[in-house]
Amino acid sequence: MKARDSQLSERLQTGFLGVIAFGLILALLVQARFILICLAFAIIIFSLTSDAISAFARLKVPNWLATTLALIAITVGVLWAATAVVSQINEVVSTSIAYSDRAQAVLSSLSQRWGPKAQESITTFLGNIDVAGWIRSAAAQASNLISGSVLILTFVGFMFSERIWFPIKIERLTGDATRAGEVMGIIHTIMRRVNRYLVVKAAISAVTAALIWALFRAAGLELAGAIATLTFILNFIPTIGSIIAMVITAAVILAQTGDPTTTVVVGGLATMVHFVIGNIFDPMLLGQTLRLSSFGIVLALAFWGAVWGIAGTFLAVPIMVAVMIVCAQIPWLRPVAVLLSQEGVPEQEPPRRLRA
């Protein structure tokens, strides 16, 4: 009896300590989110660039030259992307504010056809929506991209300086060459799968953005480039990103034209583009790459979106891939990996489990 009480007390104590540890980690993730978000993006950029450098090395390009060219390309690319996104968002802000009154007037006129009660409800709903305030808030958050880009570039530079010594540090930390090889194998698996996901997702998003741009140009609408850019970025958020992009597209069309027919036609074509690519090509190309549970992806989006905001929704899938692969190699965490995987098989090849 005493042994059973002692065991129960030990389990309760362990659970209590686990809850405290989770709370502390969650508080750290929230308080240091700017630095951690920049670090996560830096790791992704470093991972993508490392594969490129390895490809150049196979072409017998000197490592120092490939690294230097990579750093220059990363610097130019990150700063250009940040400034381009900020400029496109500012263009959407200025144009949307100018058209917001027109859009609300159109919606109010349409609501008159549905009777006085519906008109009153819609008018009250629209009156509680501060569109201009939301757009200005989004623009203010977008302006943080520049400072974040500088911090990301700093992280990437130091990662490259530590690139040669990292395997040696892993071996000395583990104290065993075999175990160090297992750790490096897990890291390479994470990098390979995340890189493949990002490359395929970028190609799919680029095709979607190009089709949306073509629709806007064919309809003679403004902000074709800005909407295409936002579509490309939002498509990196699974499921929710496409819905947000469709809503923004329809709102911009209605605000510009004030014509419900044009909004339905062009918005319907844009919705069809998102539907076909998101439900046919996206799962077909990414199914074997991710091997993630759809419900797990939704949970990851909800959790990281609550912790890190918009940036967390972009990072949710890469983080989930890393967690699944790591848990698959640790015996007592393997059930977590099985739950996160699509078919209950988190790894494509036979696992090389780490000793717990």
TrEMBL record:
Gene Ontology cellular component terms for the protein in this record: membrane
TM ranges: 12-28, 34-57, 64-86, 138-160, 198-216, 236-255, 262-281, 301-326
Pfam families: AI-2E_transport
Keyword Membrane carried by entry: yes
Principal subcellular localisation of the protein: membrane
UniProt subcellular location: Membrane
Listed InterPro entries: AI-2E-like (IPR002549)
Membrane topology, record value: Multi-pass membrane protein
PANTHER family referenced in this protein's UniProt entry, alphabetically: AI-2 TRANSPORT PROTEIN TQSA (PTHR21716:SF64), TRANSMEMBRANE PROTEIN (PTHR21716)
Name of the protein described by the UniProt record: AI-2E family transporter
Source species of the chain: Paracoccus limosus
